[in-house]
Every structure is written in structure tokens, then in C-alpha cells.
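User: Hi! I'm working on a homework problem where we have to compare a predicted structure to a textbook description. Could you give me the structure for the chain below?
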Amino acid sequence: MSQAINSTRDTSTSDEIDLAKLFGQLIDARWLILSITTLFAIAGIAFALLSTPIYKADALVQVEQKSGNGISSLMGDVGEMFASESSATTEIEIIKSRMILGNTVDKLNLTTIASPAYMPIIGKGLSRLLGEEKAIKVSRFDVPSYIDKPNFTLVLDNAEERTYSLFDLEGNEILTGQVGELVKNQGYHLFVMQLDGDAGDTFNLSKISRIDAITHLQKELAITEKGKQSGVLQFSLQGENKAKIEAIINDVTQNYFLQNIARDSEEAEKSLDFLSAQLPAIKDKLTTSENTLNDFRLERKSVDLSLEARSALDVIVKLEAQLNELTFKESEISQRFTKDHPAYKSLLDKRATLVSERKRLNQQVQKLPKTQREVLRMQRDVELNQQIYIQLLNKTQELNIIKAGTVGNVRILDSAQAYSAAVKPKKSLIVVLATLLGGMLSVAIVLLKVAFHRGVENPDEIEALGIPVYASIPKSNWQEKLDIRYNKKKVKHLETLLAESNPADLSIEALRGLRTSMHFAMMEAKNNVVMITGPAPNIGKSFVAVNFAAVIAKTGQKVLVVDADMRKGYLQRYFGMQWDNGLSDYLSGKLTLEQSIQASEVPNLDVLTRGQVPPNPSELLMTKRFSDFIDWASANYDLVLIDTPPVLAVTDPSIVGALAGTTLMVGRFDQTSVKEIDVARHRFEQAGIEVKGFILNAVEKKASSSYGYGYYNYSYESAK
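Assistant: Happy to help. Predicted C-alpha cells:
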């Protein structure tokens, strides 16, 4: 149970350490994070300032119900066909039809696209910020039908006279003209209403098809119903030019309004045309029936109907009137319902009843005397035709009134008006989002870098491989400054040797600690020769070698430092020497030891530079001359330090290590990986060389590394 608790505590502690390390790594990379975030914030501000403002204009239109007004109230059941109610979706589709928008495209010449030419990406924004006034307005632009790519460039020739020239894509001049005048040339027609700018300014002029202009307007124009089933439609459009988007919305709403009135008037007019066509025929039938009745009465000496015949006539006339009304209704219902619909069935049943009653009355009339029957029939025809004629006259007058007073069911509540503030871009939001994006991206970069980075940050990782860490040398800011000044040739050669220029530096103090560790490490060594090597280049081997040699020399011991990197060695720079006349020259037999070894300005410290770059450095190191040199140096110096090239790059260190009594490996903090160290050690083991110890160089004070963070907190310097 206790083991489980301890395991849980260990896991928790490990998690906490990982989180703390992750947070520390973010702190260490704070300048990178801050730089990227600032860069994105600046980019966001630039984008917000350079982006073209987009404005919005809107208008309100009400679509009223038709029931209870106009034709419906005047014509009763017949008017119901004009009282159909349209949904908002239907009206929106009508508004976005080519019938409505096409008129706007034609009136406002939206098939012509004219704009000033700017530098790509930032030109338009810079022009706006600098207050440059460039504008163009074209009311007519026609091109021949055979032009495949109607894209042109218009150049303002003279700003005062307002003259211009039009060129095609190949640079051919199409026409020249003046603002305010229609120009024609070989099928081209151009009328420029406005052209503002300086002489030489260019403008882009192109032509698109009518259907493309309508399609574009359909996509850009937004129409929504405000509220549920309110019948109030909101038109909205966004664009750069306030006046243009207002004009487009106003024209669309006006076209829709006029179309609605025209549609209602057209319905009334069609009904009026039908009734007007029927009136002459009904009038002729009425006249004929009246003449027939009068002739019959004259012939029979004014025959009058009996009381029974008059009563039957009145009933028959009423039945015929009702049948006529049912005929009107059936014509209307048949357009909306099938014969199986209850309303249609009810109408047919009512009609059958009236027809049956008419048949019964006709049978009753057959019992009257022949003369009475004839008079009854003629009188019935006269009254029926008269009633129908009067009814048609009344309907005609009503339709004339409706046609004259048609106002439609559409009302424009608010005309288009653009808002003073731009709806796009939202500058503050863009800056905030850009800053957040920069912050997240920089953090992601740091985390990815950490995920793929395997640099050593703690001596425990090295000692886990079985290699003791003899020293952890803090990174010297002083040395970095010296290197920068040396590269700029603003420092003397000896000043680049940190042990001389700043002996109180913490790096030198760490090397003094290494001196104590080395004393015990070399007690069992076969000689006093120490090889300083490393897995890879640029880890500070030479820095450690020369400064450690200087530290030892200051104790009174006689030290020789050898640059065995005959390819790229640069130990000479620390002592103001030249690289020639060095180790390679001695090994090749060109010079003697006395001619090769040079005394430095540091007491008790001699230097053997790399010499001329040989074609076969490894072969030179394998000669007996080199082993003899090692024996001689070991006998004539208290300590011999040999700086070699990286072991993972060349085989030279394995050759030198076989002759040296002690081998030290150098690695750079947060750069050299554990894998590199392990592979380098394995390579030495294959050559029979034991790595005595490890030197962790350039240890930095980092929040992510508890070791590096707490390694040094003060500097031991004298007060000035």
C-alpha cells in the first residue's frame, strides 16, 4: 500500500516537474515569443490600416396582405383570385429574379467595371492614407462582340483638360476622348462622367456580361425578413462606395415596387378585357330578345301573363341568375381545386339541385296555354339577358375603378441609406486576433523546437551514461563580447583569452575547479598528456583547452597546448600567432620541434599550432614521429593538452587518444545530445580508449533547467 502511495507521489512529482519545465522553456524563449507576437501585431495593425473600408447600406420594404382590399372587396367571390397571399420567401425570389435586377444592372451600367490602378496588395491602402484623390465614373462603355477579353487601361493624359486615352491589353491605343463627351471608334462607345487624378494616372476598365453582373448582384444583395411573418423585408448591400450601394438598393426597391403595381393592374386589366369582350354579345342577345317579345305582343294584340305565369317567370329568372353565379364560381374553383375537393363537390351538388328545380318549373310551365308559354319564354329571355348585361356593366365599372386606383401591396418604408462607420474591416478585432495568432504560433514554435530538441541540460543525464562530469562551465558573456570585437578586429589578440582578460569570470572559476578534479583523475594515468575532444564541432573545445592551459600555467606548472585539429584548428587566435609552422609541418619533417613550438605571452605556457593543412592528417598522426613527440612532450612539460577535432567527424581523436594518458570529452549545454555523447563514447571504447570525464560547457541560466538556473547566482569580482 505504501509503495503504491509512493509511486503515485513520484508520478505526481514527475508531472509537476514536466509542467514546470515546460513553463520554464516558455520563459526562456520569451524574447522569441515576444518578437513573433509583436511582428504579428504590427502586421495586424498594417492590415487594418491598409484594408479598404467596406460600408453597408440598407432599406425596408413592407409586403402587405391583399385580402379584404381592392378587387376582393369590390368583386366579392370573383375577386378572391386576386387575393392570393405571397410568402416572404416567394417575394425574395421575385426580387432576386433577372426581371428585377436586370433593370438595375442596365440603368446603373453595372456591366462596366472601372477603378483606379494601384500597386498590388498595399497600393490602395497607401493611396487612401496619403489622401490621393483618384476616381473614375463611366456611364456607358460598349465593346465589339468579337472581343474575348474586354480588359482595358485608361490613362489620364491631361488633368486640367481632362483628356484620356484607352489602351487594350497589348498596349494598342483604342480611342482618345475627353470627360463628359461620348467617344466612338470602330464599335467602341465610351462616356466618362468623372475622372479625377494626376496626369499619367492609370485606371482599369473592363466589361462583363449582363448575366454575370446580375449573378454578382444576386450574391451580394442580402434580403431578409425582419421578424417571423412580419412581411417587412430588409435589403442590405456592402461596398466601398456609399453612393453606389445606396443607388443600387434604391433602384432595386423601386423596380420591385413598380413591378408589384404593374402586376396587380395587369390582373385587373385582363379581367376588364374579358368582360368588355362579352358585353357586345350580351347586348345583341338582349336586343334580339326584346324585339322578339315586342313583335309577338303586336301580333297577338298585347298579350299579358297570368298571375301563375308571372310567378313562374320570377322563380325561373332567379334560378338562372344563381346558375350564372355558380358558373363564375366553378371557373374560379377549377383553377385551384380538383373535383374531389369538398368545396368543389358542394358547388356541384348545389348546381344539380338548381338544375332539378329548373326542370320542375319547366314541366309546370308546359301545362300553361301555348300563348302563355310563348310569352313566358320570351319574357324570361329578356329579363335574363337584361340582368346579365347590367351585371357585366357593373363589373366593368368596378374594374375600371380598381385599375385606376391600384397601389399594390408593397410599400417602401425606408429608402436606402449607408451607415457612416465601416462594417469591415473590424480594426480592433483584427489587431487582437493577429496578436493572439502570433502568440499562439510563437508558443507552438517553441514547443515544437523543444519536442525535437534533445540537448543536454543536466549533468545527471551524462552521468547516467557512466561518464563522470568533472566540470560545468557557465556561459561567459564576456567571451561572447570578445569574440564579436575580435571578428570586427577591434580587440588585441591576448584579450580574447578569457583567463587573461577577465580571470574572475565564472567560467575561469569553473576551470579552476576542473584543475582539482584533474589532479585526482591523472594520478593513475600512464602519462601527463590530456586529450580534449568532443562529439561535434562548435561546442567550445578550443576555449576549454586554452583557458584551462592558462589556469594551470599560472600555478607555476609548465604547460604545452597542442592544436591537433590540422584541418580547421584556430588555437593561434587566442595567442596572436599564425597557424603555419605548426604540428603538421613538424610531423611532415619540414621543421624541428624547436622551430614548431612557440612561447606565448602567458608565463609557462607554450603553444604548438596546427600548421599547414595536410592532405592526410590521420596518416601523419599515425607516424612514429607523432608518438615520439608525445613522449618528448610528456617528459619536458608538467601538462600537455591536445585539442582534437570532433570524434564523430574524423578518426583523429581515436589515434591521439591511444597515446594520451587522459581523455576528456566536452559537450555544449542545450546543444550536444545524449545520443551524440553515447555514440562518441562507444567509438572511443571500440578504439580501446576510456573517457575519464566530461566537461559541460556554456551552461546557461535557464528557467527550464533547475540545474542551470541555480548553478551560479553571483560573480566574485573586486569592487571598483
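For your comparison, note the following. Residues 2-51+425-452 form one domain. Residues 242-300 form the longest helix (59 residues). Good luck with the assignment!
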